[in-house]
Each structure stands twice: as structure tokens, then as C-alpha cells.
Amino acid sequence: MPPADDDGEPLESEDLEHGMPWQDLMSRKETDLDPGKWVDGAMLTPERLAKLPPAVRQAPELAQLVVSRSLENPSFYEGGVFGLTGSAKVFVGTTDKIKDEYELYYIIVKVLSEKYGCFMIGKQNVGDTVNVTCRDKRRIVFWKARGPGWVGFHTRQFDRDGYEIQVRQRKIVRISNTKVL
To answer: Averaged over 22-43, what is the pLDDT?
Structure first.
């Protein structure tokens, strides 16, 4: 039975799409952190700035990365910021803190362990994509990106059949009704 919306109606595959290209999620637009400015179509207000965690607010470059990517639940993590955008988990940091691919890979492995509870049994690198297979047969895909002054990745998880999933209260729930991978 396909997933249903709040009204109990079955969801169609287009209802589950995030609606924003992944490259747009990882891109950076020039902004400053003055209240009253527009960032990605949203007004940057003192209330929004106040919602940022103190560690992020104290680092203007990180705050700018959070606001320009509309990250939900941002938290300071390994010299950068970790948050959510839809069903994707996103990490972004500045290149002065994360200097090379080795440091970024260390953060990817830490996210696998701490955020996904994944014991890696297989890994495949294809360009800027890292596809990991976990012991419980989940597949977690990381899309890496780099821009002027920033580096990061976004990640989503899939079941063994290629459907996007989320783990809710220790149960795997498919959030797509068509294969993604």
C-alpha cells in the first residue's frame, strides 16, 4: 500500500519529490546577515537569526551557509553545520576548517555512524557521489559539492530495492512509492 497524506489519500510519486534540484541545495548565493535582507526568496528577520544555535550565530560564514540553504534544525558539527532540507540531511562547512577530501570523508563516516547507525560493508565512489551499503542492506548516498569558500554534502537513504526510506521510531518507512536508485 503506498504512503498516504494527512487526509488518508494515497500519495503520487510527484507528491514525494523535493521540488528543488540538488545543485540548487548546495549552491551559495552572496548574502549578508543583516536583518531585513532577502535570502533565497525568504526575508532574513531577527527572529530567524535568533533561531540559529549560538555556536552557528557566532560564526557569520556558517550562519550565512545555513540561511542561504534554508537548513532546518541546524547544529554545529565537526567545524561546519549539519541540518535537514526535506528528506535530505545536509552538511556544509567552510574550506578554512575542512581543507581537503580526507577531512570531508572523515565527516561522512562519522555521519554514517552517528546519524544513520550504519555499519559500512561496502562503498562505491562515482565522481562526487559516495554510495555506501550498510550491514542491514540499507544504501546511503552522499552527493559532495564544493564552491568558493565552502564544501559540503547532502545525503539520503534507500532500502535494498532502491526506494527512499526514513527510520521513524526504529522502523523503516518508505517515503517514495517509486524506485529512486
So the answer is: 43
Give the 3-state secondary structure of residue 114: helix
pLDDT at 24: 46
pLDDT exceeds cutoff 50 at 28: no
> Whole-prediction pTM value?
0.72
In angstroms, the CA 24 to CA 113 distance is: 27
Dist CA 10 CA 14 (whole Å): 12
- Domain residue ranges of the chain, discontinuous segments joined by +: 13-174
For residue 87 the three cell numbers come to 528528506
CA-based nearest residue to 147, from 105, 111, 106, 93: 93
**Mean per-residue pLDDT for 26-52?**
52
Cell of 104: 570531508
How far is residue 104 CA from its own chain's centroid? 14
What CA–CA distance (Å, rounded) separates 66 from 40? 11
**Does position 124 have pLDDT exceeding 90, yes or no?**
yes
Contacts of 153 (CB under 8 A, 6+ apart): 26, 90, 91, 104, 108, 130, 142, 143, 144, 145
**Residue 122 near residue 130, CB atoms below 8 Å:** no
